[in-house]
């Protein structure tokens, strides 16, 4: 394994939560705990992104975002990484192809909030992502209807597992995706950047819907 890359063994199920984490907040921690439990994952790796290809604004420095993410999510099952910077990949499809080659036999699951499902069809080579790994989608306020309305969800409607089957997702035949509802956090990095109250966000004191 490449130096500085997390360890995973054959047969393990690893969730990958990519994001700008600019900054990380209790909403990220919440969906990660839910994903571990609902999808029966062994670990979740946070992929702190060098920069979302669809966003024009550059994020805060990587080291700063990683350090904060580790404070927000000090869970032994969660590994905060800068893997995409290490791999030199920019698009999720590329990242997944590289990780699957580096970790043969590991079952990766791509995780994302429901807001990302809404625009998933705009991602580079998005169909290849669904061909490569199962996708777990976590509810987010304002995106209740996305599992029915998003273009990618409609095109791949037959690949959808019911929430009751969530634990089967990591081993499911591809393509497969699953949307899980749960108590939601209304936290977002953009609201934190706008409001400047980072401490409350880290400790999750904001409202839950
Ligand atoms: N409160 C939340 N509920 C559900 N999913 C979330 C929540 N916050 C973030 N996510 C998901 O976590 C992943 C990484 O999110 P990201 O780092 O972009 O944070 P963000 O709060 O969405 O940022 P921004 O407000 O700048 O768009 C994405 O898949 C996103 O959908
Ligand atoms: O591959 C793409 O085209 C693509 C487009 C938009 C977002 N993503 C990924 O989605 C994840 C969430 O991005 P963000 O900026 O909403 O935190 C992060 O890992 C991005 O690299 C990927």
Number of helices: 10
CATH superfamily: HUPs
Order of helices and strands: EHEHEHHEHHEHHEEHH
The radius of gyration computed from the alpha-carbon positions, rounded to a whole number of angstroms, is 16 Å
Structural class: alpha/beta
Main sheet characteristics: 7 strands, parallel
Strand content: 15-25%
According to CATH, the fold-level topology is Rossmann fold
Distance between the termini: 42 Å
Widest sheet: strand ordering: 3-2-1-4-5-7-6
Q: What is the number of E strands?
A: 7
Averaged pLDDT, please? Answer: 92
CATH class: Alpha Beta
The number of domains is 1
Unique bound compounds: adenosine-5'-triphosphate, nicotinate mononucleotide
What is the helical fraction, as a range of percent? 25-40%
The assembly state of the depicted protein chains is single chain
Report low-confidence residues grouped into runs of 5 or more.
199-209
Per CATH, the architecture is 3-Layer(aba) Sandwich
